[in-house]
Amino acid sequence: MIRLAAVIGLPAQNAEEYERLHTDVWPTVLERLRLSNMTNYSIFRFGELLFSYLEYTGDDLDADNAAIAADAATQEWWTLCEPLQLPLPERAPGEWWKPIPEVFHLD
Known about the structure:
Alpha-Beta Plaits, four-stranded antiparallel β-sheet
C-alpha cells in the first residue's frame, strides 16, 4: 500500500461550489477510483488550500492513473472541478495537484 498526498489552491470564491460538488460525487467517478485501487480517499480544505490523501493498493500506479484519466465520466467531472482550483506554482510540468512527501506516519 502506498500513501499519497497532494495540495492545490482553491480560491475563496470557489470554495462553496467545490464543496457542493463533493457532497455528491458521481457514482461512476467513485467506481473508477475503486477499480483503480484508490482507497481511503479524503480531501480537506484549509483556507484557500485543498489537501488530498489516499491509499493506493494496486501494483501499477501509472496504469491505474492512466485508466482514471481515460475515463469519460472522470474527464467530465474534472471539467467541473478544475476551473475552481488554482494549481500551485511549485508543481512540476504536467502536474495539476502538487504531490507532497510524507514526513511521519504512525502505524
